[in-house]
Amino acid sequence: MNKTPLIWWVRRDLRLADNPALAHAVATGRPVIPVFIHDELIEDLGAAPKWRFGLGVAKFAESLSAVGSRLILRRGKAVDVLKELVAETGANEVVWSRAYDPAAIVRDTGVKTALKDLGVTGESYIGHLLFEPWSVKTKVGGYYKVYTPMWRAVKDIHVDNCIAAPTEIATPERWPDSDALNEWQMGAAMRRGADIVAKYVCVGEAAAEARLIAFLDDAVERYKEERDFPSIEATSRLSENLTYGEIAPRRIWHAGQRAMHEGAKGAEHFCKELVWREFAYHLIYHTPRIVERNWREEWDAFKWRGDNADAEAWRRGLTGEPMVDAAMRELYVTGTMHNRLRMIAGSHLTKHLLINWKIGMKWFEETLIDWDPAANAMGWQWIAGCGPDATPYFRVFNPESQGEKFDGTGRYRATYLDGWKDEDGNSRLEDFYKAIPKSWELSENDAKPARIIELKDGRARALAAYSSYKSDE
Predict the structure, then answer these.
(1) Structural domains of the chain ordered from first start
(2) Are 247 and 208 in contact (CB under 8 A)?
Protein backbone atom coordinates (compact mmCIF):
# COMPACT_ATOMS: atom_id res chain seq x y z
CA MET A 1 0.00 0.00 0.00
CA ASN A 2 1.25 3.47 -0.92
CA LYS A 3 1.54 5.42 2.33
CA THR A 4 2.59 8.67 0.70
CA PRO A 5 -0.01 11.15 1.94
CA LEU A 6 -2.27 13.22 -0.23
CA ILE A 7 -3.44 16.71 0.75
CA TRP A 8 -7.10 17.59 0.33
CA TRP A 9 -7.37 21.39 0.28
CA VAL A 10 -10.80 22.07 1.77
CA ARG A 11 -12.46 25.24 0.50
CA ARG A 12 -16.13 25.95 -0.23
CA ASP A 13 -16.91 22.24 0.00
CA LEU A 14 -17.55 21.65 3.68
CA ARG A 15 -19.20 18.26 3.22
CA LEU A 16 -18.41 14.56 2.98
CA ALA A 17 -21.22 13.51 0.60
CA ASP A 18 -20.94 14.06 -3.15
CA ASN A 19 -17.52 15.65 -2.94
CA PRO A 20 -15.57 14.54 -6.03
CA ALA A 21 -12.21 15.87 -4.77
CA LEU A 22 -12.59 13.96 -1.51
CA ALA A 23 -13.88 10.87 -3.35
CA HIS A 24 -10.75 10.83 -5.52
CA ALA A 25 -8.53 11.19 -2.47
CA VAL A 26 -10.25 8.35 -0.62
CA ALA A 27 -10.25 6.09 -3.70
CA THR A 28 -6.45 6.18 -3.86
CA GLY A 29 -6.32 4.32 -0.55
CA ARG A 30 -3.57 6.67 0.56
CA PRO A 31 -3.52 8.71 3.77
CA VAL A 32 -5.52 11.91 3.32
CA ILE A 33 -4.66 15.16 5.07
CA PRO A 34 -7.64 17.56 4.96
CA VAL A 35 -6.44 21.16 5.21
CA PHE A 36 -8.39 24.40 5.48
CA ILE A 37 -6.36 27.54 4.81
CA HIS A 38 -7.27 30.98 6.11
CA ASP A 39 -5.77 32.48 2.98
CA GLU A 40 -5.86 35.78 1.13
CA LEU A 41 -9.42 35.24 -0.10
CA ILE A 42 -10.72 34.39 3.37
CA GLU A 43 -8.95 37.43 4.76
CA ASP A 44 -10.78 39.68 2.27
CA LEU A 45 -14.27 38.42 3.18
CA GLY A 46 -16.82 40.75 4.73
CA ALA A 47 -17.79 40.48 8.38
CA ALA A 48 -20.84 38.21 8.07
CA PRO A 49 -19.55 35.71 5.49
CA LYS A 50 -16.19 35.35 7.27
CA TRP A 51 -17.95 34.70 10.58
CA ARG A 52 -20.34 32.21 8.99
CA PHE A 53 -17.46 30.46 7.20
CA GLY A 54 -15.81 29.98 10.57
CA LEU A 55 -18.94 28.32 11.95
CA GLY A 56 -18.99 26.01 8.95
CA VAL A 57 -15.34 25.07 9.37
CA ALA A 58 -15.88 24.22 13.04
CA LYS A 59 -18.87 22.01 12.22
CA PHE A 60 -17.02 20.29 9.38
CA ALA A 61 -14.09 19.50 11.66
CA GLU A 62 -16.56 17.55 13.79
CA SER A 63 -17.78 15.64 10.72
CA LEU A 64 -14.23 14.62 9.85
CA SER A 65 -13.60 13.47 13.40
CA ALA A 66 -16.67 11.24 13.17
CA VAL A 67 -15.03 9.28 10.32
CA GLY A 68 -11.67 9.06 12.07
CA SER A 69 -9.98 11.98 10.34
CA ARG A 70 -9.23 15.55 11.34
CA LEU A 71 -9.08 19.01 9.80
CA ILE A 72 -5.71 20.76 9.78
CA LEU A 73 -5.94 24.55 9.98
CA ARG A 74 -3.26 26.87 8.64
CA ARG A 75 -3.15 30.60 7.99
CA GLY A 76 -1.25 32.40 5.25
CA LYS A 77 -1.04 32.79 1.50
CA ALA A 78 -2.39 29.58 -0.02
CA VAL A 79 0.59 28.83 -2.24
CA ASP A 80 3.04 29.30 0.64
CA VAL A 81 1.04 27.19 3.08
CA LEU A 82 0.67 24.32 0.62
CA LYS A 83 4.37 24.34 -0.23
CA GLU A 84 5.16 24.19 3.49
CA LEU A 85 2.76 21.29 4.01
CA VAL A 86 4.21 19.37 1.09
CA ALA A 87 7.66 19.75 2.60
CA GLU A 88 6.45 18.76 6.08
CA THR A 89 4.41 15.72 5.08
CA GLY A 90 6.07 14.42 1.93
CA ALA A 91 2.75 14.63 0.07
CA ASN A 92 3.06 14.42 -3.70
CA GLU A 93 -0.50 15.34 -4.64
CA VAL A 94 -2.94 18.11 -3.69
CA VAL A 95 -6.62 18.03 -4.69
CA TRP A 96 -9.40 20.59 -4.34
CA SER A 97 -12.83 21.63 -5.63
CA ARG A 98 -12.78 24.17 -8.44
CA ALA A 99 -13.75 27.81 -8.00
CA TYR A 100 -14.71 30.13 -10.85
CA ASP A 101 -14.53 33.75 -9.68
CA PRO A 102 -11.57 35.83 -10.91
CA ALA A 103 -9.74 36.10 -7.60
CA ALA A 104 -9.95 32.36 -6.98
CA ILE A 105 -8.81 31.54 -10.50
CA VAL A 106 -5.71 33.71 -10.06
CA ARG A 107 -4.93 32.07 -6.72
CA ASP A 108 -5.51 28.53 -7.95
CA THR A 109 -3.51 29.00 -11.14
CA GLY A 110 -0.57 30.19 -9.06
CA VAL A 111 -0.91 27.23 -6.71
CA LYS A 112 -1.02 24.70 -9.54
CA THR A 113 2.07 26.23 -11.17
CA ALA A 114 4.01 26.24 -7.90
CA LEU A 115 3.11 22.62 -7.17
CA LYS A 116 4.15 21.55 -10.66
CA ASP A 117 7.52 23.24 -10.15
CA LEU A 118 7.94 21.08 -7.04
CA GLY A 119 7.03 17.92 -8.93
CA VAL A 120 3.74 17.68 -7.04
CA THR A 121 0.43 16.95 -8.76
CA GLY A 122 -2.22 19.62 -8.29
CA GLU A 123 -5.69 18.64 -9.48
CA SER A 124 -9.07 20.35 -9.18
CA TYR A 125 -12.51 18.75 -9.44
CA ILE A 126 -16.05 19.90 -10.07
CA GLY A 127 -18.19 20.16 -6.96
CA HIS A 128 -19.41 23.72 -6.54
CA LEU A 129 -21.59 23.64 -9.68
CA LEU A 130 -23.77 21.30 -11.71
CA PHE A 131 -22.09 22.19 -15.00
CA GLU A 132 -18.66 23.55 -15.80
CA PRO A 133 -19.07 27.08 -17.23
CA TRP A 134 -17.19 26.11 -20.39
CA SER A 135 -19.24 22.95 -20.98
CA VAL A 136 -22.54 24.74 -21.68
CA LYS A 137 -22.43 26.48 -25.06
CA THR A 138 -24.78 28.22 -27.43
CA LYS A 139 -25.44 26.73 -30.87
CA VAL A 140 -22.62 28.85 -32.30
CA GLY A 141 -20.20 27.79 -29.58
CA GLY A 142 -20.33 30.90 -27.40
CA TYR A 143 -21.50 31.49 -23.85
CA TYR A 144 -25.03 32.36 -22.78
CA LYS A 145 -25.80 36.02 -22.09
CA VAL A 146 -29.50 35.48 -21.32
CA TYR A 147 -30.84 33.08 -18.73
CA THR A 148 -33.87 31.54 -20.45
CA PRO A 149 -31.99 30.05 -23.43
CA MET A 150 -29.45 28.60 -20.99
CA TRP A 151 -32.23 26.98 -18.96
CA ARG A 152 -33.63 25.42 -22.12
CA ALA A 153 -30.18 24.11 -23.01
CA VAL A 154 -29.50 22.43 -19.65
CA LYS A 155 -32.91 21.41 -18.27
CA ASP A 156 -32.67 17.93 -19.82
CA ILE A 157 -28.90 17.55 -19.71
CA HIS A 158 -27.36 14.58 -17.90
CA VAL A 159 -26.15 15.27 -14.37
CA ASP A 160 -24.00 12.59 -12.74
CA ASN A 161 -25.38 10.80 -9.72
CA CYS A 162 -24.27 11.82 -6.26
CA ILE A 163 -21.31 10.12 -4.58
CA ALA A 164 -21.86 8.58 -1.16
CA ALA A 165 -19.99 9.99 1.81
CA PRO A 166 -16.98 7.93 2.89
CA THR A 167 -17.37 6.00 6.11
CA GLU A 168 -13.66 6.20 6.83
CA ILE A 169 -10.66 8.12 5.53
CA ALA A 170 -7.14 6.77 5.71
CA THR A 171 -4.96 8.79 8.06
CA PRO A 172 -1.25 9.63 7.98
CA GLU A 173 1.23 8.14 10.44
CA ARG A 174 1.91 11.65 11.71
CA TRP A 175 -0.38 14.63 11.52
CA PRO A 176 1.07 18.06 10.77
CA ASP A 177 0.55 20.79 13.34
CA SER A 178 -2.69 22.75 13.20
CA ASP A 179 -3.75 26.24 14.24
CA ALA A 180 -6.62 26.64 16.71
CA LEU A 181 -9.72 27.99 14.98
CA ASN A 182 -10.61 30.37 17.79
CA GLU A 183 -7.24 32.07 17.43
CA TRP A 184 -8.25 33.23 13.95
CA GLN A 185 -11.08 35.36 15.36
CA MET A 186 -13.12 34.99 12.17
CA GLY A 187 -16.13 36.60 13.81
CA ALA A 188 -14.35 39.64 15.24
CA ALA A 189 -15.84 42.13 12.78
CA MET A 190 -19.38 41.00 13.65
CA ARG A 191 -19.01 42.46 17.13
CA ARG A 192 -22.30 42.35 19.06
CA GLY A 193 -24.25 41.38 15.96
CA ALA A 194 -22.89 37.81 16.08
CA ASP A 195 -25.07 36.80 19.04
CA ILE A 196 -28.19 37.98 17.21
CA VAL A 197 -27.48 36.49 13.76
CA ALA A 198 -26.40 33.22 15.40
CA LYS A 199 -30.06 32.53 16.21
CA TYR A 200 -30.89 32.33 12.50
CA VAL A 201 -28.03 30.33 10.98
CA CYS A 202 -28.29 26.73 9.78
CA VAL A 203 -24.78 25.28 9.90
CA GLY A 204 -23.35 22.05 8.55
CA GLU A 205 -24.03 19.18 6.21
CA ALA A 206 -26.65 17.44 8.37
CA ALA A 207 -28.56 20.69 8.90
CA ALA A 208 -28.49 21.45 5.18
CA GLU A 209 -29.82 18.00 4.35
CA ALA A 210 -32.61 18.41 6.90
CA ARG A 211 -33.45 21.80 5.41
CA LEU A 212 -33.74 20.28 1.92
CA ILE A 213 -35.94 17.42 3.12
CA ALA A 214 -38.23 19.78 5.03
CA PHE A 215 -38.66 21.94 1.94
CA LEU A 216 -39.45 18.97 -0.30
CA ASP A 217 -41.90 17.57 2.23
CA ASP A 218 -43.93 20.76 2.32
CA ALA A 219 -43.11 24.06 0.60
CA VAL A 220 -42.01 22.76 -2.81
CA GLU A 221 -45.64 22.11 -3.78
CA ARG A 222 -46.48 25.83 -3.44
CA TYR A 223 -43.05 27.23 -4.18
CA LYS A 224 -43.88 28.93 -7.48
CA GLU A 225 -47.00 30.65 -6.14
CA GLU A 226 -45.71 31.67 -2.71
CA ARG A 227 -41.95 32.17 -3.03
CA ASP A 228 -42.32 35.96 -3.43
CA PHE A 229 -44.19 36.42 -0.14
CA PRO A 230 -41.61 37.11 2.58
CA SER A 231 -43.84 36.32 5.56
CA ILE A 232 -44.53 32.79 4.23
CA GLU A 233 -42.04 29.95 4.66
CA ALA A 234 -42.05 29.00 1.01
CA THR A 235 -38.37 28.89 0.00
CA SER A 236 -35.65 26.34 0.70
CA ARG A 237 -33.18 28.87 2.19
CA LEU A 238 -30.40 26.61 0.93
CA SER A 239 -28.35 29.51 -0.46
CA GLU A 240 -26.62 29.75 2.92
CA ASN A 241 -25.48 26.14 2.73
CA LEU A 242 -24.67 26.14 -0.97
CA THR A 243 -22.25 29.02 -0.64
CA TYR A 244 -20.06 27.05 1.79
CA GLY A 245 -20.58 23.74 0.05
CA GLU A 246 -22.42 22.16 2.98
CA ILE A 247 -24.71 20.55 0.44
CA ALA A 248 -23.90 19.61 -3.15
CA PRO A 249 -25.80 21.24 -6.01
CA ARG A 250 -26.20 17.77 -7.55
CA ARG A 251 -28.00 16.60 -4.41
CA ILE A 252 -30.45 19.48 -4.71
CA TRP A 253 -30.88 19.03 -8.47
CA HIS A 254 -31.68 15.34 -8.29
CA ALA A 255 -34.05 15.90 -5.37
CA GLY A 256 -35.80 18.66 -7.29
CA GLN A 257 -36.04 16.55 -10.43
CA ARG A 258 -37.50 13.66 -8.48
CA ALA A 259 -40.09 15.97 -6.91
CA MET A 260 -40.95 17.31 -10.37
CA HIS A 261 -41.49 13.82 -11.77
CA GLU A 262 -43.64 13.00 -8.75
CA GLY A 263 -45.90 15.93 -9.64
CA ALA A 264 -44.87 18.63 -7.16
CA LYS A 265 -46.15 21.84 -8.75
CA GLY A 266 -43.27 24.07 -7.74
CA ALA A 267 -40.40 21.66 -8.35
CA GLU A 268 -39.54 22.79 -11.89
CA HIS A 269 -39.37 26.41 -10.78
CA PHE A 270 -37.15 25.35 -7.89
CA CYS A 271 -34.78 23.67 -10.36
CA LYS A 272 -34.83 26.84 -12.45
CA GLU A 273 -33.58 28.82 -9.48
CA LEU A 274 -30.68 26.41 -9.09
CA VAL A 275 -29.80 26.99 -12.74
CA TRP A 276 -30.04 30.77 -12.14
CA ARG A 277 -27.10 30.24 -9.77
CA GLU A 278 -25.32 28.31 -12.51
CA PHE A 279 -25.99 31.21 -14.89
CA ALA A 280 -24.30 33.60 -12.45
CA TYR A 281 -21.18 31.43 -12.44
CA HIS A 282 -21.39 31.04 -16.21
CA LEU A 283 -21.17 34.83 -16.49
CA ILE A 284 -18.50 35.37 -13.85
CA TYR A 285 -16.28 32.85 -15.62
CA HIS A 286 -16.77 34.15 -19.15
CA THR A 287 -17.04 37.86 -18.25
CA PRO A 288 -15.07 38.34 -15.01
CA ARG A 289 -15.53 42.11 -15.24
CA ILE A 290 -18.99 41.56 -13.73
CA VAL A 291 -17.53 41.62 -10.22
CA GLU A 292 -16.24 45.17 -10.45
CA ARG A 293 -17.38 46.87 -13.66
CA ASN A 294 -20.62 47.24 -15.59
CA TRP A 295 -21.38 44.01 -17.41
CA ARG A 296 -22.87 46.09 -20.22
CA GLU A 297 -19.79 48.15 -20.92
CA GLU A 298 -21.83 50.89 -22.60
CA TRP A 299 -23.12 51.74 -19.13
CA ASP A 300 -19.71 53.01 -18.10
CA ALA A 301 -20.87 56.49 -19.15
CA PHE A 302 -23.94 56.46 -16.89
CA LYS A 303 -23.76 59.05 -14.09
CA TRP A 304 -24.44 57.18 -10.87
CA ARG A 305 -24.42 59.00 -7.54
CA GLY A 306 -21.61 57.95 -5.22
CA ASP A 307 -21.77 57.05 -1.54
CA ASN A 308 -23.65 59.69 0.43
CA ALA A 309 -26.14 60.30 3.23
CA ASP A 310 -28.94 58.65 1.23
CA ALA A 311 -26.87 55.50 0.84
CA GLU A 312 -26.15 55.47 4.56
CA ALA A 313 -29.86 55.86 5.31
CA TRP A 314 -30.49 52.89 3.03
CA ARG A 315 -27.89 50.78 4.85
CA ARG A 316 -29.47 51.61 8.21
CA GLY A 317 -33.05 51.00 7.11
CA LEU A 318 -34.01 54.67 7.30
CA THR A 319 -35.26 55.41 3.77
CA GLY A 320 -38.85 55.96 4.86
CA GLU A 321 -40.01 53.16 2.56
CA PRO A 322 -41.42 50.42 4.84
CA MET A 323 -40.63 47.49 2.53
CA VAL A 324 -37.08 48.69 1.96
CA ASP A 325 -36.42 49.50 5.60
CA ALA A 326 -37.85 46.16 6.75
CA ALA A 327 -35.61 44.39 4.24
CA MET A 328 -32.49 46.16 5.45
CA ARG A 329 -33.35 45.27 9.03
CA GLU A 330 -33.96 41.65 8.09
CA LEU A 331 -30.46 41.64 6.63
CA TYR A 332 -28.91 42.98 9.82
CA VAL A 333 -30.86 40.65 12.12
CA THR A 334 -30.70 37.37 10.20
CA GLY A 335 -27.74 37.81 7.84
CA THR A 336 -30.04 37.05 4.91
CA MET A 337 -32.76 38.79 2.94
CA HIS A 338 -35.73 37.35 1.10
CA ASN A 339 -35.05 37.35 -2.64
CA ARG A 340 -38.06 39.51 -3.51
CA LEU A 341 -36.83 42.07 -1.00
CA ARG A 342 -33.32 42.00 -2.47
CA MET A 343 -34.87 43.19 -5.72
CA ILE A 344 -37.02 45.82 -4.03
CA ALA A 345 -34.21 47.19 -1.87
CA GLY A 346 -31.73 47.07 -4.74
CA SER A 347 -34.09 48.82 -7.11
CA HIS A 348 -34.77 51.56 -4.59
CA LEU A 349 -31.06 52.23 -4.13
CA THR A 350 -30.13 52.21 -7.80
CA LYS A 351 -33.30 53.65 -9.34
CA HIS A 352 -35.13 55.95 -6.91
CA LEU A 353 -31.91 57.09 -5.23
CA LEU A 354 -29.69 56.73 -8.35
CA ILE A 355 -26.82 55.36 -6.25
CA ASN A 356 -24.14 53.19 -7.82
CA TRP A 357 -24.93 49.48 -7.64
CA LYS A 358 -21.38 48.81 -6.39
CA ILE A 359 -22.26 50.48 -3.09
CA GLY A 360 -25.16 48.09 -2.54
CA MET A 361 -23.10 45.14 -3.67
CA LYS A 362 -20.37 45.99 -1.15
CA TRP A 363 -22.90 46.24 1.68
CA PHE A 364 -24.30 42.83 0.86
CA GLU A 365 -20.74 41.52 0.66
CA GLU A 366 -20.27 42.73 4.22
CA THR A 367 -23.57 41.59 5.74
CA LEU A 368 -24.88 38.46 3.96
CA ILE A 369 -24.14 35.07 5.48
CA ASP A 370 -25.05 33.56 2.10
CA TRP A 371 -22.79 35.96 0.19
CA ASP A 372 -21.73 34.46 -3.11
CA PRO A 373 -19.37 36.35 -5.47
CA ALA A 374 -21.22 35.40 -8.65
CA ALA A 375 -24.82 35.70 -7.44
CA ASN A 376 -24.17 38.99 -5.65
CA ALA A 377 -22.50 40.65 -8.65
CA MET A 378 -25.05 39.41 -11.18
CA GLY A 379 -28.01 40.21 -8.94
CA TRP A 380 -26.96 43.79 -8.38
CA GLN A 381 -26.20 44.44 -12.03
CA TRP A 382 -29.47 42.80 -13.09
CA ILE A 383 -31.54 45.05 -10.83
CA ALA A 384 -29.49 48.17 -11.65
CA GLY A 385 -30.00 47.71 -15.38
CA CYS A 386 -26.38 47.34 -16.44
CA GLY A 387 -26.33 43.55 -16.29
CA PRO A 388 -27.65 40.55 -18.24
CA ASP A 389 -31.27 41.43 -18.89
CA ALA A 390 -33.21 42.08 -22.06
CA THR A 391 -35.30 45.02 -20.76
CA PRO A 392 -33.42 46.69 -17.89
CA TYR A 393 -34.43 50.24 -18.76
CA PHE A 394 -38.04 50.14 -17.57
CA ARG A 395 -37.77 48.07 -14.40
CA VAL A 396 -38.27 50.38 -11.42
CA PHE A 397 -39.81 48.47 -8.53
CA ASN A 398 -42.33 50.52 -6.59
CA PRO A 399 -41.79 49.47 -2.94
CA GLU A 400 -45.25 50.64 -1.94
CA SER A 401 -47.14 48.61 -4.53
CA GLN A 402 -44.74 45.70 -4.01
CA GLY A 403 -45.69 45.79 -0.34
CA GLU A 404 -49.38 45.72 -1.15
CA LYS A 405 -48.88 42.80 -3.52
CA PHE A 406 -46.46 40.63 -1.58
CA ASP A 407 -47.11 41.70 2.02
CA GLY A 408 -50.82 42.38 1.92
CA THR A 409 -51.31 41.54 5.58
CA GLY A 410 -48.39 43.79 6.56
CA ARG A 411 -46.91 41.04 8.68
CA TYR A 412 -43.42 41.23 7.19
CA ARG A 413 -43.20 45.00 7.69
CA ALA A 414 -44.64 44.73 11.18
CA THR A 415 -42.02 42.13 12.09
CA TYR A 416 -39.14 44.50 11.50
CA LEU A 417 -40.72 47.92 11.96
CA ASP A 418 -43.48 47.60 14.57
CA GLY A 419 -42.19 44.97 16.96
CA TRP A 420 -44.52 42.12 15.98
CA LYS A 421 -43.49 39.03 17.95
CA ASP A 422 -43.49 35.44 16.78
CA GLU A 423 -45.18 32.56 18.58
CA ASP A 424 -42.15 32.19 20.86
CA GLY A 425 -42.31 35.83 21.89
CA ASN A 426 -39.21 36.87 19.93
CA SER A 427 -39.06 40.36 18.47
CA ARG A 428 -36.86 40.90 15.44
CA LEU A 429 -37.21 44.64 15.92
CA GLU A 430 -35.64 44.29 19.37
CA ASP A 431 -32.95 42.10 17.81
CA PHE A 432 -32.21 44.83 15.27
CA TYR A 433 -31.46 47.39 17.97
CA LYS A 434 -29.32 44.87 19.83
CA ALA A 435 -27.30 44.02 16.70
CA ILE A 436 -26.58 47.40 15.14
CA PRO A 437 -23.46 49.42 16.02
CA LYS A 438 -23.91 51.74 18.98
CA SER A 439 -22.40 54.48 16.81
CA TRP A 440 -25.61 54.53 14.76
CA GLU A 441 -27.33 56.02 17.83
CA LEU A 442 -30.72 54.54 16.96
CA SER A 443 -33.41 53.52 19.43
CA GLU A 444 -36.96 52.19 19.43
CA ASN A 445 -38.14 55.61 20.55
CA ASP A 446 -37.01 57.33 17.35
CA ALA A 447 -39.72 58.71 15.08
CA LYS A 448 -40.21 56.79 11.85
CA PRO A 449 -38.14 58.33 9.06
CA ALA A 450 -39.67 60.44 6.30
CA ARG A 451 -39.22 59.39 2.70
CA ILE A 452 -35.93 60.46 1.19
CA ILE A 453 -37.73 61.08 -2.07
CA GLU A 454 -41.32 60.66 -3.21
CA LEU A 455 -41.64 57.51 -5.28
CA LYS A 456 -43.12 59.20 -8.34
CA ASP A 457 -40.35 61.81 -8.25
CA GLY A 458 -37.67 59.16 -7.86
CA ARG A 459 -39.04 57.14 -10.74
CA ALA A 460 -39.26 60.22 -12.96
CA ARG A 461 -35.70 61.19 -12.07
CA ALA A 462 -34.42 57.69 -12.83
CA LEU A 463 -36.19 57.47 -16.19
CA ALA A 464 -34.97 60.96 -17.11
CA ALA A 465 -31.41 59.96 -16.25
CA TYR A 466 -31.70 56.81 -18.35
CA SER A 467 -33.24 58.76 -21.25
CA SER A 468 -30.41 61.27 -21.13
CA TYR A 469 -27.84 58.49 -20.99
CA LYS A 470 -29.46 56.69 -23.94
CA SER A 471 -29.58 59.82 -26.05
CA ASP A 472 -25.87 60.40 -25.42
CA GLU A 473 -24.86 56.89 -26.56
Answers:
(1) 1-127 (3.40.50.620), 129-160+193-286 (1.25.40.80), 291-472 (1.10.579.10)
(2) yes
